[in-house]
Amino acid sequence: DAKTTQPTSMDCAEGRAANLPCNHSTISGNEYVYWYRQIHSQGPQYIIHGLKNNETNEMASLIITEDRKSSTLILPHATLRDTAVYYCIVRDAGGGNKLTFGTGTQLKVEL
Amino acid sequence: ETGVTQSPTHLIKTRGQQVTLRCSSQSGHNTVSWYQQALGQGPQFIFQYYREEENGRGNFPPRFSGLQFPNYSSELNVNALELDDSALYLCASSTPTPPETQYFGPGTRLLVL
User: Fold this and answer.
1) Does B98 sit behind a cis peptide bond, omega within 30 degrees of 0 on the bond before it?
2) What is the average per-residue pLDDT within B49-67?
3) In angstroms, how far is CA B68 from the centroid of its own chain?
4) Rounded CA gap, A36 and B102, in Å?
5) Residue B78 backbone dihedrals phi, psi, to 5 degrees
6) What are the distances in angstroms from CA B3 to CA A60, B24, B89, B102?
7) Chain A within 8 Å of B88 (Cβ-Cβ)?
């Protein structure tokens, strides 16, 4: 699986959009970009995934650059409950594949 | 629809003992993966089970073993516990169709004294 690079930490004001970047310059054509988040001491929560196109669901939007070497997770209106560690993971679409977690981005949403 | 569940939530053991952790997969999911998360680190892949057989393993010694049952639930067994085994153990079940998104349970917090 391709390696990802994320900032260690970010701050965001409540109500504003949180934009979390991720670099995955060695991504290959059949690898998906996944985002999970983990609130302190809980299991990781799936947020969204994408292959080439931008994706949106009830939680977030995922913007993937045309060359697929980077992506941005957007939380449109961050709340205090969005404070968590956010993990960007690249993995193959084939069956039986593990998730390789890095250190993630600690997002702190403040009043 | 019930999500992934794990039991127990917390557990305290002493060095040398054995422990069994349990996981019930989300309805319709046939693959279960186990991860270990030490304090301050990201989860590390232990192994995965598909159709009751191990289907991939991370860098963990043989004293970490598992089972998957016909109903797709799973157990993680750890023998000869060491202090460094203290961690949050996470179970994830996967959707049956590509890209097989994994959904995690709440985890079991194991403390080895």
Assistant:
1) no
2) 94
3) 11
4) 10
5) -125, 120
6) 21, 8, 17, 11
7) yes
pLDDT at B3: 92
Confidence of residue A17 (pLDDT cuts 50, 70, 90): very high
User: C-alpha distances in angstroms, B9 versus A105, A111, B22, B106?
Assistant: 26, 32, 10, 8
User: Which residues of A are less than 8 Å from B90 in CB distance?
Assistant: 43-44
Q: Which of A34, A87, A94 sits opposite B42 (nearest CB)?
A: A87
Average pLDDT over residues A40-49: 94
| Cβ-based burial of B11 (10 A; exposed 0-12, middle 13-18, buried ≥19) | middle
State how far the Cα of B113 lies from the Cα of B107, in Å rounded to an integer: 19
